[in-house]
Amino acid sequence: MDNMGAETPVFSPGIYPGPKGITMKKFAYASVLALALVAMISSVALAGAGHEHAKQAKQAEMGKCCIEAAEAGKGCCGKDAETVKASYADYKANTAVKADMHKCCAAALDEGKGCCGKDAAALKADYSKKVAGHKAECAVKADMHKCCASAVADGKGCCGKEAGELKADYDKKVAKEEKKLAAK
Fold first, then answer.
1. CB 11 within 8 Å of CB 3
2. 62 secondary structure, DSSP code
3. How far apart are CA 118 and CA 104, in angstroms?
4. Distances (CA, A) of 61 to 21, 58, 93, 155, 176
5. Per DSSP, what are the bridge partners of residue 115?
6. Helix intervals (H) in the chain
7. CA 178 – CA 160 distance, rounded (Å)
């Protein structure tokens, strides 16, 4: 006798064929969704403390673990030390530039919108130019004597160079570094 019309469980109590219960197709669909949800939750849980990269879609954010690794000269999150160091330089430049922006412009940049009379593309271009400039300045200062880097920031001379001469040399090196970074 055909039990398809009867109210008997298909394979589990409470799951009935037909209009009164769940069909196999609906059950399979619900199972796949449940597995996908479990996989998503598990991937976030497996990331662990400090590995919050899944939540960090915004520009200029970096996981705490990677910041600590970059400062220690180590690799992190499957990336080698040089890659982490480069990411950290980007992070510091982005953070410094955003700190100098209006809060409304920084928020608009994150949302892909315009602000303060600039459309989204102009705001992003201005931001990118400032970030590149900051990265170039940091690279040049890293290659200078600490006393000279400090003197340039203070508008003073150092190591036998007058303030104007030191600043001109610094600006020339920054422009060269900006071109080098733009070529990458």
1. no
2. -
3. 12
4. 49, 6, 11, 32, 27
5. 118
6. 24-47, 64-72, 81-100, 103-111, 120-143, 146-154, 163-183
7. 26
Q: What is the pLDDT along the chain (184 residues), one digit of tens a residue?
A: 455 555 544 555 555 555 555 666 776 667 777 777 666 665 554 444 444 433 333 444 677 888 888 888 888 888 888 888 888 887 888 888 887 888 888 888 888 888 888 888 988 888 888 888 888 888 888 888 889 888 888 899 899 999 999 899 989 998 998 888 777 7
The token duo for 64 is: 């705490």
Residues in the chain: 184
DSSP-derived 3-state class of residue 76: strand
Closest Cα partner for 160 from 64, 169, 5? 169
Question: What token pair was written down for 76?
Answer: 């992190």
